[in-house]
Amino acid sequence: MPRIKQIVGLDIGSRQVRAAWVSVRGQQPVVTRTEQLALPPDAQNRVEIIRAWINKCGLSRQFCAIALSGGNTVFQAGKIAKKDPRTPRQVAAVELAAFSDMAGDAMSYDITDHTMAADSENRYYLMAMARPAAIERALSLASQIGVRPADLIPAPVAIYNRLTAFVAKESQPVIYIDIGHNQTEVAVGDAAGILFARAVPIGGKAFTDVLAQGAGITPHQAEVRKHAEGLADETASLLKPATDRWLAQVSSCLSVYRSTFTADGMAPQGIVLSGGGTDLSGLREVIGERFSMRVTMATELPGFTESGGATCRMAGGFCLAVGLAVTALELGASHISLLPGHLRDEVVFRDKKPYWIAASVCGALTLAIFTISGLRSLKREERLLHEERQRLRAREQIDKQIGVIRSRGDALRWRSQRVRDLLQNAPVSREALTLAANSLGADDWLTLFCNECCYVPQEGMPKPSQGSARPTGLAGLRSGAIVVAPPKAARKKATQPKKSDVPQVLSLSDATTQTFIIEGYTADPSWDSVKNIIERLRTSPTVINADIRADDRVLPPEGGNKNTPLSNMPVFRRFVISMEVKCK
Question: Which CATH number applies to 6-339?
Answer without folding.
Answer: 3.30.420.40
